[in-house]
Amino acid sequence: MAPRRPLGEISGNIRQGCEMSPYERGxxxxxxxxxxxxxxxxxxxxxxxxxxxxxLKVDSQRQHGVSKPRSGRPRAFTDRQMRLILRIxxxxxxxxxxxxxxxxxxxxxxxxxxxRILKExxxxxxxxxxxxxxxxxxxxxxKAFGDNIANNQAxxxxxxxxxxxxxxxxxxxxxxxxxxxxxAEQKWDKDHVDPFPKSLGPxxxxxxxxxxxxRTEIVIMKRDYEAKHQGYSSKSYIEVLExxxxxxWEPGWRFMQDNAPIHTARIVTQWFDDHAIxxxxxxPPFSPDLNPIEHAWAKLRDIIHEVDPDIDNAxxxxxxxxxxxxxxxxxxxxxxxxxxxxxxxxxYWRRIEAVREVDGWYTKY
Length: 365
Prior knowledge:
This protein is an alpha+beta fold. It has three domains: 70 residues; 42 residues; 222 residues, Ribonuclease H-like superfamily/Ribonuclease H (Nucleotidyltransferase, domain 5, 2-Layer Sandwich). It has 14 helices and five strands. Strands 1, 2, 3, 4 and 5 form a five-stranded mixed β-sheet that branches. The longest helix has 18 residues.
C-alpha cells in the first residue's frame, strides 16, 4: 500500500527506503533555512515527514551532506578466534571443516562465518591434486637435477633432447571433463553427471618421442610372451629403440627416458652404450612434470575422442576393438600440431624454475 502523510492524501510518489543524496540534503537544509516546515519540505522532495525530521536531526554530524559510515554487520568472532582459525588451517591444510570447528570451539551453526573469514584472507578449499608420492630424499634429487640444468646447461639445452615415454591407452575414458548448466538441486541428476565406465575396455601400450623439429610416429609396443606376466619387457623396449632411433638421431643429442624398470635394465643400458647414445644422466624418480611429453599424452587422449567420439561404445570383439583403437590413436597423434610440441620446448625452463622454487617438491606441471 502506498505511504500516506497524516491528514494528507495517499501518494504513490513518496519513496521509501531510498537514501537521500547530498544534493537532496542540500535542498532540504536550504528549505529549512527559508522557514519551511518538515511536512512542506517532504512534499518538495517526495519524502516522508519522518525522513526529513530524522535527517535534519543528524545533519550536523555529516560532511557536505554525505552519509555517515555505517557500523556494518557485527563481527562473529573476536580477533583471537580469527587468529586461531587461521593458525589451524595453516598448520593442518587438509583438515576438514568439522574438525576445524571442533578445534576452534566454534558451534556448527557458525560454519558459514568461518567460510567468510577464510575467504577474506584469500583461503579457499579445493580437492587436493594427485601426484606421485615424493619424499624428502626424492625432492632433494629433483632439486639437484633442476639446479644442475639451470647452472650448467645452455639455454637451448632442451632443444637437443629426444624426449620419450610410453603410456597405456584404453578404449574408454577419453575426452575432456564436461561442464553442465543447472541449479544446485540438479547437481546429482543423471543428466548432470559424468558416470565412470564400468570397464575401461581393451588397452594397448604405445611409445613416442619428440624433439625440436621432429616427432616419431606413435609405436604400438609388442608384448613379450616370454616375460613373467607376458607384458612389456626390456626386450619390447629395445625393439622400439632399434626401429625408431635411427630415423631421427643426430650427433650431439641426448636421449631422455625415465626410471621405469624396462628402461634401466642391464640389456637396455648396454644397448645405449653399444650405439654410443648418451642418455640424460641423473633423471630424478617420480618426475613426470619434468618430461614435457606428458602433456602430449593428455592432448592425445582429448583428440582420440574427437577423432572417434563413439570409441567408448565400440563392439565386435576384443580384436576388432583394438584394431579400431590403434587406428584412432595413430590419426589422433598425427593431428597434434607441430606448434604444440614447439610450445612445450619453448616453456621448458619454466618447469626447471618451478622445481627449484619449491625445493624439488610438487609443481603445477
